[in-house]
Amino acid sequence: LGETTDGGCQEYICLDQKHFHKLPANLSFEQGAVIPIAFVTAWQMLIEKAKIKAGETILIHAAGSGVSVACIQIAKMMGLHVIVTSTSSDKLHRAKTIGADRFIDTSTTPFRESVKNLTSKAGVDVVVDHVGDPTFMDSIRVLKRGGRLVSCGATAGANLQIDWKHVFFKNIALFGSTYGTRADFAAVLRAFEGGKLIPIIDRTMKFEELAKAHEALENRRIFGKIVLSI
To answer: How would you label 12-44 residue by residue, b for 16+ Cβ within 10 Å and e otherwise?
Structure first.
């Protein structure tokens, strides 16, 4: 839904029964609405692809995005040390409230240099980079030997220039990822039901304000998710 067929941004929709999951009793419908895409995508990226482990250090770009907010929480839940980037000091502050440990304001400091300083030149074990062209090569450079980079998109440019020797000399793994499985979805719902993850709603807007909601997304004026109320 929303990729190869029309999505759920409509008043009425007809779905096969197999696509339904029971909403955890501790969540409202508005809270439930932010879970499927962002958290299932993040779960597939970190748990199934990058196979994160407690004690590792992870760099997560674009701290305010829906997927990054989910990645921060999942990484922290799994016992990782979390470094995040953003051009907004407000988003970095809000990232701290959901578990991020270290913060890089990329409007003032190149993240590659900051990661070197924050890790005493050791680098990070995992990078989440769905920004693309502006950050991708330096994301590879900040990885430790045997590090993993996982991406679910390229919001700022998909035509990447990669110095491939950094990949094979350091035995780096690059993972592409889109969404996840029903098993991932079930695992995510259990984590929400157990209070290990929390939904982050930037604001709730009326269905008639859809254009304004898209404008806020396009201008990166949100942290987490916008929910439409029908």
So the answer is: eeeeeeeeeeebbeebeeebbbbbbbbbbbbbb
